[in-house]
Amino acid sequence: MEHLAQLPSVSEELSRRFLIRRCLGQGGFGVVYEALDRSLGVDVALKALLSMDPAALYAFKQEFRALADVAHDNLVALHELFFDEGRFYLTMELVRGVSFLRHVRPSREERSDASAITLPPLPTAKRAMAAEFANAVTMDVPVVGGAHGTIAMVTLPMSGAELPRLPLEQPDAQGVLDEERLRQSLVGLAKGVAAIHRTGRVHRDLKPSNVLVTPEGHVKILDFGLVGSFESLARDRVLVVGTPAYMSPEQATGAAGDGSSDWYSVGVMLYEALTGVVPHLFEGTSIEDLLYTKHLVDPPDPREIVPSAPADLAELALRLLARDPRARAGAEEIFRITGAAAESAPPPASVMRGARPGFMGRAREVAAMRAAFDACVGEHQPVVLHVHGTSGMGKSDLVRHFLDALVEERAPILLEGRCHEREWVPYKAFDGAIDALARLLGEIDPDDRAGLLPPGFSSLARLFPVLGRLAEEGSEPEAPDPHELRRRAFEALRRLFVNLAGKRPVVLSLDDLQWADADSAALLEALLAAPAPALFLVASYRTEEARGCALVGRLPSAHTPTPGLLSREVVVGPLATEDAEALARSILGEDGEDAQRTAARIAREAAGSPFFVQELARYLLAGHTSEGLDLRGVVAARVALLPAAARLVLEIVSTAGRPIEPVLIKEAAALGDEENRRALALLRAEGLLRAKGGRDEARVETYHDKIRESVVQGLAEGELRARHHALGQAMETMSNADPAALAMHFRTAGEPSRARAYMERAARRAEQVLAFDRAATLYRLALEHAEPADVGALELRLGDALAKAGRGAEAARVFLSAAARLDARPALVARQRAVEHSLRAGHMDEGLSAARELLPAVGLPYPATPGRSFVNVAVARVKQRFRGYDFQEKPEHAIDPVVLHRIDLCWSLGNGLGGVDAVRGADFQARHLALSLAAGEPYRIARAFAWEAVLRSLGGGAQNIAEARDLAARAEAIALRIGHPHAIAWSCAGKALAAHNGYAFREAVVLCERTIALFREACSNIAWEIASMYAWWLLTALFYVGDVRALLDLLPQCRSEADALGDRYMETALSVLMTPMGLLLEDRPEEAMASSRHALSRWTTRGYHTMHWGAFYSSTQALLYLGEGSRAYAALHAQSGAVHASMMPRTAKSIRIRLFDLQARTALARAREVARPEPLVREALSLAERLDSERSPWSDACALGVRAAVFARRGDVDRALAYLARARSSFRRSDMELYARLTERRMGELEGGEAGRARIDDIDAWFHAQGAPRPDLLARALIPL
C-alpha cells in the first residue's frame, strides 16, 4: 500500500490529511504526487519542494501565487501553498491527461520538450541584427540544455551564405495530425492564455508539456513558476528565463513585458503540431544560435515541410511567429480562424469603463520624494522619508507611483514590506521586504554573494527562515543567549544593507507602519543605529493612528533628529480639485460635458479623497445617485448590490483584516470551487478586492482599508462573531494556519478556551524567532482566558518571555505573581528569579525588597549596612584561608535541591549587587563560595572561584592580584574539564579583572574582549555580564591605554544595545561614567554632566552605589575640564562622606586611588581661584602622601603629578619637569598612555619656547587624530599644574 512514507520527513499532521496514491513525476527541485486530500474529499496533485535553494523556493511560491486567485476552465486550479516542518508544499487540481502534442498527434511518441532555463540577459535584438554585418556570430557561453537535450555549439555564417534548412524528417514525428482535435485544443489553449493576460501577467514558459488535454478534450495550462506581471516585467531588468525552443525573440533579451511573447510560444506549439518539427532548430544548433536565429530570420512555411498542412493554420502559425511583437497574431485571430464564438475573446481592459484609474496629480509630493532620494544618493547618507496623511488620501498609491518611476529611472535595489492591522507575523513590517531580499540574494552569483553576506547571517536566518539556505554559505555557531542571537541578527541585517548600498542605492519601503509590532520597531532601530547604512527608507503611515505606534515614534524626524541621518517629510493631503476631477473622468471612461459635470460633483463630494472619488465614480457608473451618502454609505450601498455569495466573501475577507488565501475564503464561506472563484472575480472587477500588493500575490485583501472598515462596521455583532468563527473553523483544517490569527478569530467569536490554546502556541512560535515582545503580548492574552489552576504556570512563561525581551522589571513582577499561585518549591524558584531579574536589570528597590522577603525562607540573613557586610567578608576570608579550596566533587543530582537553591540565590544576589553595591555583593559571594565548596558541584565551584577572583582583584596590591590570578586559573581548570561555557567565560572574566585591577590595562583590553566574546557565543541570560564588562572594565581600559578612537566607536554601540534591551542597569552604568568621559573627549562637557544627572534621576535614592560614585567622579572631571575648580571642590566635599560610608574606597584600591587623586586635583584647581591658596596646597600634598602609601605605579604617578604642580606653583620649574617626567614613566608602566601623553603636554607647557611648542603640537596631533579636539582642556582636568 502506498502512503506518506514516500515523502521524506513528513509530519503526523500532514500524513493525517493526505493519502499518497502514486508519484506523478520528479524534477531537480520537486516531486509531484497524486494524493487524496481527506479534508476536501477529492484527489489532488501534491507538489513538494525538495530544495530550499532561494531561487527554487521563490519559483515554487511564485507558481502558486501568480494565479492562485484566478479561476478559469483552461487554467489548472491552485488550492493551497503551505509550509510543514521544513518543507514547502502546494496542492492543485489533478489533471488526468496527455500533453498538447500527444493529444493532437495521437500516435506521437511522448518525449520531453526540456526544462525551462535561466540565462544572463543576452544582447538586444538591435545588437543581434547588427551582427548581420559581421562574418559570423560567435558565442563563448557554455552549452546548457536544448529543446530535446544538449546540443553542440556551432557558428552561424552571416556573410550571405544560406542558412541551414530544417530537416524534413523528424525521428519522433510518428503520429498523424488530428486536425479537428488541433482546432478544438487551440481554442482552449488561447482561452487559457488570454485569461492569464487579463490578469496583467505573462506565462513565459508555454510548451507542450505545460499544456495537458483530458480524455474529454479539455485543455489545462499549468506550471506557473515563471509567471510575471506586465508591470514588473516592464519595470525590472530580468534574467532570460524559459525554454529556448519555445521562447520569443524578445524574451531571449529579457524584454518579455507583455502577452505577445506567450503568443509566440503558442505559435511554436502550433508549428510543431503541424509539421512535427520545432522552427529554427537545426541539427547541432546551440541555444545561443537558436535564439539569435529567431531574431534574424523567419521560419519556413509549414507547408514546405508538410504540404498537406491546413493553409489557414499554417498561415496562423507564421503570424504567431512574427519577429515583431506588434505584428504578431493573438487570441482574436485564433478565435476567428477556428470559428470560436466571438464572446470567447474578452474585451481589452483599456476599453472597460470603471477600470482602475491611473495616477493623478501630486506633483509637489513626488518632487519632494525625488529630492529626498537625491540627497540619499548624492551625499551617500541614510535618509528617512516620512509619508503620512489621513486614511483615504492615497499614501500607498503615491508611494507606488514614486517607486515605479524610481525603479525605471534609477534602478535601485527595492525592498518592500507592509503591515496589516490584524496580521500577527513576527517582524511583520519587514516580512515582505526580507522575502524580496532573499530573492535578490538568490539571483546573485555565489562568488559575489559571498562578499555581501556578513557575519551573523545565520542568526538573521533564524528570524527569517526564507534566508535559511543562503545562511549555509556563512554558517557559524549559534549563540544560545536569545538577546545575543537577536543582536547578531539585527547587526547582520544592518551590515548586509551597508554592503548592498555599496553596490547600488537601496530603497526600503515600509507601508502602514501605524500597525507595526514592537519587534519590527526594535529591528528598525538597530538597522538605523550608527553607523547606519546609506539606505533610503520610505516610512508611510496614517497620521491619525501613528501617535501610539512605537516604531513611528522611534523613527528619526525633524522633531527628533539623529546625527548621521537625514529625515524628510511628505504630508499627503486632499487631492487638488482639478486632479480629483481628472481621476473621476478616468474612471467614468468619458470626457463629454455630462461626464465633466459629473466628475466635478464627485470631486466636490469627495473633498479631496482619491479613494472616495473612486468609490463615488463606481457607484454612479452603476446608475445610482450619491446624494446624502457618506463614504461608508457608498460602500454599504455597493456591497448591498452584490450577489449573496460575493457579499459573504467580502465580509469574510474584511473580517480577517489581513490578506488571506482563496481556499480559506472558500472554506469559511462554505462555497464550492466555482462559486468561490466567480465571487472573487466579481469583487476584483468591482474594485473591492485585490491580490496582495507587489510580487507576493498568494492572498487577497480588501482594495483599501476604508472598504474593510466600512464592511466590518456594517455587520451586526452576531454576524461579526459568526464570520470570525467561520474563519477560525476553516483555518483549523489548514496545516499552515497561523495560530495567532486563529486565537484572534476564536477570541472575537466568543470561544476563549480555543483562543487561549492558540495564543500559547503562537507565543511559543514567536519565541522561536526571537520576537519576544510579541510572545509576551500573546501570553498576556492567554492569561485573560486561563483557568485559575493554570495561571501560575502561564505566568512563568510570560516572565520568561519578558526577561528575554529585556524587560527585567516586568518579568520580576510576573514571577512574584506566579510565586503566589505555585507550590512551595516552584514558588521559591519563581521568587529567586524575580530577585535576580530586578537586580540585574537595575531595579534595585524592587529587587532588594523581594530579596529581604525571600532570604529568611532559605535561612540567609540580609546585611543591614555596608559596614556589616565589610566585616562579614573579612571574617569569611579568614575562615576560607584556614579551610582552603579543596572540595569533594559531587554531581548535581546527588545534592539536596534546597542546598542548590541557596547557592544559586547567593549567586544571584552577589552577582546582581556586584556592579552596584559591591560590598554587599562581596558578602553574598563569600557565602556563595563557602556553600559551593561544601556542596561539591563543580560548575558552581568554578563560578564561585571566578567571582572570588574578581573580588580579590578589587583589593589591589601584589598579593591580592596574585591570589586573584590563582583563583581564576582554578576556575578555568574546572570549567575546561567539565566543558561548561558559562564557567569558562566567567574564568576569563576573573583573569580580565585581575589584569585590570593590577593596572595591566593592555592585557585587560584583550581579556575583556575575549570574555565578552565567550559570553556572547556560548552563554544565555548574560545581559548583566555584558553590561558590566563594557561599562566598568573594557571601556575604562580603553580610556587608560589611550585608544580613544576605539572607545568613541564602541560607546554608541553599547548604548544602542542597552536601549534595545531596555536594560536600566546597562543604561545607567554606561551613562554615569564612560559616556560622560567619552563626551569630555569630544569636548562636550555640559552634555557629560547632563548624562550622569539624567541617569541618576532614574536610579534608586536608597544607599550609595557604584552608579553614584561613577556619576560623582565623571561630573567632577567635567567641572575641572570647564576650569571651575571651586565648584568641583565643593561638589567633591559634598559627597565625600557618602563615598566613605559606602565602604567602596576600603573595598576597591582603584577607587581609593581615583578618590585621592581627584581630591588633590580639585584642591589645586580651587587654589588657583582663591586669595589664600596655601591651605589647599597643603591639602593636596597630604593627599599625595596618601597616594604614596598605595604603593602602585598608578598611585605613584598621581602623587608625582600633584607634587609637580606644587613645584610649578612655587616657581621651581626644573623640579616640576623632573617630577612630571617620572610621573609619565609611572603612567606608562601602568599602561596609562592617555595620562602619559597629557603629562607630556604639561611638560611642554612648562618648558616653553620652540621645544615646548613642538612637544605640545605632537601631543595635540595624536589626540586630534583620535577624535579628541581639546587635549589642552583634558590636561587641565586630569593632570594638575
Automatic annotation (TrEMBL):
<dbReference type="Pfam" id="PF00069">
    <property type="entry name" value="Pkinase"/>
</dbReference>
<protein>
    <recommendedName>
        <fullName>Protein kinase domain-containing protein</fullName>
    </recommendedName>
</protein>
<keyword id="KW-0418">Kinase</keyword>
<keyword id="KW-0067">ATP-binding</keyword>
<dbReference type="InterPro" id="IPR017441">
    <property type="entry name" value="Protein_kinase_ATP_BS"/>
</dbReference>
<keyword id="KW-0547">Nucleotide-binding</keyword>
<feature type="domain" description="Protein kinase">
    <location>
        <begin position="18"/>
        <end position="359"/>
    </location>
</feature>
<dbReference type="InterPro" id="IPR011009">
    <property type="entry name" value="Kinase-like_dom_sf"/>
</dbReference>
<dbReference type="GO" id="GO:0005524">
    <property type="term" value="F:ATP binding"/>
</dbReference>
<dbReference type="InterPro" id="IPR027417">
    <property type="entry name" value="P-loop_NTPase"/>
</dbReference>
<dbReference type="Pfam" id="PF13191">
    <property type="entry name" value="AAA_16"/>
</dbReference>
<feature type="binding site">
    <location>
        <position position="47"/>
    </location>
    <ligand>
        <name>ATP</name>
    </ligand>
</feature>
<keyword id="KW-0808">Transferase</keyword>
<dbReference type="InterPro" id="IPR000719">
    <property type="entry name" value="Prot_kinase_dom"/>
</dbReference>
<dbReference type="InterPro" id="IPR041664">
    <property type="entry name" value="AAA_16"/>
</dbReference>
<dbReference type="GO" id="GO:0004674">
    <property type="term" value="F:protein serine/threonine kinase activity"/>
</dbReference>
